[in-house]
Amino acid sequence: MKMSTNKKIGEKVIEPELSYTITGVLFAVHNELGQYAREKQYGDLVEKKLKEIKIPYKREISISDSGNILDFIIDNKIVLELKASRILTKENYRQIQNYLQQTNIKLGLLINFRSKYLKPVRIIRIDSYNS
Q1: Rounded to two decimals, what is the model's pTM?
Q2: Which of 31, 47, 82, 89 shows its CA 20 to 30 Å from the CA of 116?
């Protein structure tokens, strides 16, 4: 009897095609600007590339009275949060989880462009999350 140690077998990837397309855009932006640009420069180029491939998005959305502004909502299916910092912190993960809760979107992508090698992080909305 063959047993699998992969507990994720059978789990569904959320928005695979759209998230892979966005990841391609993010790698193109990182290749073009490198790792030392400002967050706004990365956002501007992401926006330009999303327009070029005709993916619907909203940018810099205020989602609550707290003054929090998320970077992008892609096709009303993915929250995209861009960072340009030395490291990602727990607060960055809490922030995107909070955005997912408030928008009721299932998938978020957290990107730190400051890294030498881009590693998009997929964040799944926790249904019973308390911030």
Answers
A1: 0.87
A2: 47
